[in-house]
Amino acid sequence: MVREQMPLIQEIQTDEWWQDVTTPMLEIVRRRLRALVKLIEKQQRKPIYTDFEDETWRRDNGGASALYRAGQSLSASRAKTRPVVFSA
To answer: E-assigned strands of the chain?
Structure first.
């Protein structure tokens, strides 16, 4: 099972493969490798905690506070959020 997918596994580890990657390419990889996930040995890991802000989001989009303010109705929040989320 792993041996069959080894050429793909080796190929996606190269920088060249990732240069012009497309969504359909990623979907093909996902489908070909998903059966291998069950073979990964489970191990106990400590959680990793992070505490950082997305400065790009805040600078480019006015930050989350510009999209939702306390006391604002859900429909008003959606109206502001929708253009930002779906513009990409």
So the answer is: none
What are the backbone dihedrals phi and psi of residue 70, each rounded to the nearest 5 degrees, phi first?
Answer: -55, 135
- Token pair of 59, please? 């600078």
In angstroms, rounded to a whole number, what is the distance separating the alpha carbons of residues 57 and 24?
27
Q: Residues 6 or more apart from 1 whose CB is under 8 A from it?
A: 35, 36, 39
Instruction: State pLDDT tens for residues 22-71.
Output: 999 999 999 999 989 888 888 887 888 888 776 655 555 554 555 445 55
For the beta carbon of residue 67, count every other beta carbon within 10 angstroms. Answer: 19
pTM over 0.85: no
**64: its two tokens:** 């989350």
